[in-house]
Every structure is written in structure tokens, then in C-alpha cells.
Design a protein that fits this description.
The complex is a heterodimer of chains A (about 90) and B (about 260). Chain A has about 90 residues and is of the alpha+beta class. Chain A has three helices and four strands. In chain A, about 45% of the residues lie in helices and about 25% in strands. Chain A starts with a helix and ends in a 6-residue tail after the last strand. The chains are: A alpha+beta (about 90), B alpha/beta (about 260). Chain A: Keywords: Cell cycle, Cell division. Chain A: One of its GO terms (biological process) is cell division.
Chain lengths: ~90, ~260
């Protein structure tokens, strides 16, 4: 098995479990449903679209975690990856 | 000073009842007066794991409803002089008792016992609320699986919301050979994720099945690894500082060969 892993370079299932669990618990603890996330996404698009032209189809928003700057642990973080198609100047519309 | 300890997990089948039976028996072997309280009304099993299923006359619901006195319902385990069982009712449901009644019962039992160990039903509904109502501290049992740890995390949140702070963790059914080859979450991973104190780690051990078959808790088996793990847990519950046992199993022929050639860890 170890030798197989060595050639496959597939992450071990124990690590897969750990990573899945970490992400799962972030969502569980925040108590943030995918519905809520979707509503947030719609609102963010609305706000940003006022100022710039964004690629709505490619917009990606998710909850993950990052290293805390204050303590040694990790803290949940909201990632938003918003590709811009065209910069418009504020108040142009 | 007596202590009421609830053994809980959220997910079913992770070893709550086995843990309750072994902790209780272990504490009794140390000379403490112990009562095991089965709060899993409708699906009682602690009596079977303890091998006392043929001696039940009255149960928890009979006591709560006043059909008998507490002392009449307590089953004395003849093998260990200071151990008693208060069985759950099998033909009723979880709503047959209320958290207030459980609290009253626990306080009543405090007068006669050093430790009251409660076997909590799976789930987060009424049965869970009843089981934790009278407890001073909680032990959360989990196994190194995504579903079990997730449920444990939920339970820890609910315990803290119910003022049962600082629950401690028992990681059950760990298989060191799988951890070593990376196919099972390690003890450190689970403790890190749940962020609560570790009370003990119990290896997956065939002796558990054998002892459950016989109705004799594995903690009494001096040659079993799981038995040793439970004896250590009992010491820690009593406040003694016992280091975690070495769970490394014989790595087998291939392991030795690999080590010889410096492959793997």
C-alpha cells in the first residue's frame, strides 16, 4: 500500500478524511447553509456590478480557513474570487 | 463527593455503551461505589453488555413514575461488589421521562454512590437532553471517521450550550497499522480538530467482541490492550496522571523488511 502510494502520489485517505472534516466543521460551526451563501453571492454581484463589470459565471465564493495572525490556530475566512471583465469608473452609470 | 458522568457521542455505534460498562466496572474494581444508569429508553443495551439482562425486575421509568423505590430497581452485580445497574425501560419511549425527573434521580443516587455513569442514547433529541440533565461532566466518545467526529463536534457544541463545559474525549477503535500507513486519521488530528481534552485512546480490539459476547467487560481482562486502555481511562477519571499507552502493534514481516531498506516511516 505504501509502495502503491509512492508511485500514485495520491494523498493518503487519512489526510483526505482530515481535510474533508475540517471544511465540513467550518460550515457546521458557522451554521451557514449553501442557500445563505447563494443569497450572499447574489448581493455581492449586485454591489460590485455597480462599480465594475464582472464575470458572474466565473464568480466563486466559499468559506475556508486561514492561519490566524493573533493565535496559532486557524480562523474561518470568506473567500471571494471575482474576475473583472472591464473596469468602469465609479459613478459612471 | 460523588460525580455524575454522562457518556455521549451523537452518532450511534461508536462504543458508548461499551465505554460506559468498562468505565463503571473499572471504577468499581478500584473500590468505588458505582451505579450505571442506562438512559437509552426503548433501546436498552447496557444490561446485555454487562451480562445482567436476566435480572431486571424494575427499570428507570418505574422509578421515575413511582411504581417502585430506587433501591428495588437497582441490580447488584454479583461479580463486583460495589457495582450496580439501573436499567432503562425497553417498552417505552424517550418522552417517558423529563430532564427534571432525571436530575432528581441523579441527586437521589448521589447519596449512595461515588460515581453515577450515564449511558446516553444516540442523537440530539429528548433522550440526549434527559441524559445530560443531571450530569456534572461529560465524556464524548468518537471513532476516527469523518461522520463520527462531525457528530462529536455537534455534541460538544450542545454540551457547552447546556452549561456542561470542558467535556473530555475518548477516541475509540483506533487501528495503529492503518494510522501508520496513512489510511486512518491519527489521534493528534482528531484532538486538534475537536479541540477538547483527551481522556484516552482505545485500540480496535477483537477482545471487545469476545467480552461483549460473554457479558464481561473487557476492563477485567488483564491481557487485552483495550482492557488496559480502559484501566488507564479509569485512573484518569479518578484524577491520576497516567501517560497514554503505546499502541504500536507488531508491524509484521513486510514492515520489518521495509524498515530494513529504509522505506516508509
Amino acid at each position: 500500500m505504501e509502495l502503491l502510494n509512492f508511485f500514485n502520489r495520491k494523498p493518503s485517505s487519512g489526510n483526505v478524511a482530515k481535510d474533508r472534516l475540517k471544511l465540513l466543521l467550518i460550515h457546521d460551526r458557522i451554521n451557514c447553509s449553501s442557500e445563505l451563501l447563494e443569497m450572499m453571492k447574489t448581493d455581492i454581484i449586485k454591489v460590485i456590478s455597480k462599480y465594475m463589470d464582472i464575470d458572474e459565471a466565473e464568480l466563486d465564493i466559499q468559506i475556508g480557513q486561514t492561519k490566524s495572525e493573533e493565535s496559532n490556530g486557524t480562523v474561518p475566512v470568506l473567500y471571494a474570487n471575482i474576475p473583472i471583465k472591464n473596469m468602469r469608473k465609479a459613478g459612471n452609470q | 463527593m460523588s460525580e455524575v458522568i454522562v457518556v455521549t457521542s451523537g452518532k450511534g455505534g461508536v462504543g458508548k455503551t461499551t465505554t460506559t460498562a468498562n468505565i463503571g466496572t473499572g471504577l468499581a474494581l478500584k473500590g468505588h461505589k458505582v451505579v450505571l444508569l442506562d438512559a437509552d429508553i426503548g433501546l436498552r443495551n447496557l444490561d446485555v453488555v454487562m451480562g445482567l439482562e436476566n435480572r431486571i425486575v424494575y427499570d428507570l421509568v418505574d422509578v421515575v413514575e413511582g411504581h417502585c423505590r430506587v433501591k428495588q430497581a437497582l441490580i447488584k452485580d454479583k461479580r463486583y461488589s460495589s457495582l450496580y445497574l439501573l436499567p432503562a425501560a425497553q417498552t417505552r419511549d424517550k418522552n417517558a421521562v423529563s430532564p427534571e425527573q432525571m436530575q432528581k434521580l441523579c441527586d437521589q443516587l448521589r447519596e449512595d454512590f461515588d460515581y453515577i455513569i450515564i449511558d446516553c442514547p444516540a442523537g440530539i433529541e429528548q433522550g440526549f437532553k434527559n441524559a445530560i440533565a443531571g450530569a456534572d461532566r461529560a465524556i464524548v466518545v468518537t471513532t476516527p471517521e469523518v461522520s463520527a467526529v462531525r457528530d462529536a463536534d455537534r455534541i460538544i457544541g450542545l454540551l457547552e450550550a447546556s452549561e456542561l463545559r470542558n467535556p473530555s474525549l475518548i477516541l475509540n477503535r483506533i487501528r495503529m497499522n492503518m494510522v501508520k500507513r496513512g489510511d486512518m486519521m491519527a489521534m493528534e488530528d482528531v484532538v486538534d480538530i475537536l479541540a477538547i481534552d483527551l481522556l484516552g485512546v482505545v485500540p480496535d480490539d477483537e477482545n471487545i467482541v469476545v467480552s461483549t459476547n460473554r457479558g464481561e467487560p473487557v476492563v477485567t481482562d488483564s491481557s487485552s490492550l483495550a482492557g488496559q486502555a480502559f484501566r488507564n481511562i479509569v485512573e484518569r477519571i479518578m484524577g491520576n496522571d497516567i501517560p497514554l499507552m503505546n499502541l504500536d502493534v507488531n508491524e509484521g514481516f513486510m514492515g520489518k523488511i521495509k524498515k530494513l531498506f529504509g522505506i516508509g516511516n
